[in-house]
Amino acid sequence: MTILIIEDEQLAQERLQLLVKAYDSSINIIACLESVEETVNWLNTKPHPDLLLMDIHLSDGQSFEIFKRTTTQKPIVFTTAYENYAIDAFQLFSIDYILKPVTAEALATALNKYKNLSAAFAPKDYQLLMEQVKDNFSTNYKTRFLAKVGQRLFFITANEVAYFAADNKIVFLIDKEGNRFVINTTIEKLETELNPKDFFRLNRKIIINAGAIDQVKPYQSNRLKLQLKGISTQEEIIISRERVADFKQWADA
User: Which residues fall within 8 angstroms of residue 117, CB to CB, at 6 or more apart?
Assistant: First the structure.
C-alpha cells in the first residue's frame, strides 16, 4: 500500500508517519506535503498513491481546493480539528473522517476500512480467468487415438494426424506420413472432440489438421482445394462452398 500525507503541521505530520508505520511497517509513505499548491503540483505530475491522509486546513487554504484543480479518484481519510466539514468531506472520495488528535485506534479503523473496500472492489484479472477456462476446456480435447490396421492397434497423437476421412460408415485417420488407420468413431463425434484451434471440418467427410496444410487453391463452384505437406491423398481435400468463409476465418485466427 502507498500513502500520501498532506498535513501542514510538522508535529501532526510526524505523528501520522509513526502511527502508519506502527500499524503496518510495509506501508510506503511516498511523500508528506504541506500546502494546496504543492499537492496540486504533485498529483498533476506523479502517479497517485493508493490512499490520501489529508488535513483540511493547510498553509495556503482548504484542501477541498485541491480537487478543483486536479483529478484523482483515490480514497481519502481526512484528519482535522474541525467537525463541521464532514458533509463536504464525504462528497469527495472520503472513506473516513478523523478528529485530531489522531489516535492509533482511529487510524487503524480507517486503514482497515480501506483494506476491506479495496479487496471488495479490486478489479478481476479477467484475462487470466479466461486463460484458465481455456486451459480447463483444452484438457477435454482428444490428444491421442487408438487406431487399427488389420489386427494391430496403434496409439497416434493428435499432432501426428494429417486429416480424418469418412467413407460410408468407416472413419480413417491419415497421419502426416500418409499412413491410413481405421478408428472407431464418427466424423460428427470427432468434430466435438478435437481442438478447434487445430482442426477444421472441411465438408461432410473430412476434418483437417492445420499443421498438415501446404497450399490452398481455388476450385470449381467457388470451393477451395487443399494440398497437404509431403503426402499424397486418396481423397480430394475440398472445402465445401458453405464452409469457405468459416475456413478463411479459422485459418486467419
Answer: 75, 95
* Angle between helical axes of 10-23 and 104-121 (0-180°, round to 10): 60
CA dist 9 and 5 (Å) reads 11
Q: How far apart are the first and last CA of the chain?
A: 41
> What tens digit of pLDDT does each residue of 141-179 get?
889 999 988 888 999 999 999 999 999 889 999 999 999
* Nearest C-alpha neighbor of 51 from the set 98, 113, 121: 113
Strand partners, 148: 153, 182
Cβ pair 215, 227 in contact under 8 A: yes
pLDDT digits 0-9 by tens, 76-133: 999 988 888 877 877 788 889 999 899 999 999 999 999 888 776 655 554 555 565 5
Closest CA to 212 of 173, 186, 241, 155: 173
CATH topology of domain 2-122: Rossmann fold (3.40.50)
Pick the closest to residue 55 from 87, 22, 88, 98 (CA basis): 98
Kindly give, in sequence order, each residue whose CB lies less than 8 Å from that of residue 99, ignoring residues fewer than 6 positions away.
80, 81, 83, 106
Cβ contacts of residue 89 below 8 Å, gap of 6+? 56, 76, 78, 97
Task: Give the right CATH number for 136-251 from 1.20.1260.10, 2.40.50.1020, 3.40.50.720, 3.40.50.1220.
Answer: 2.40.50.1020
> 3-class SS at 24?
coil
Phi, psi of 161 (to 5 degrees): -80, 135
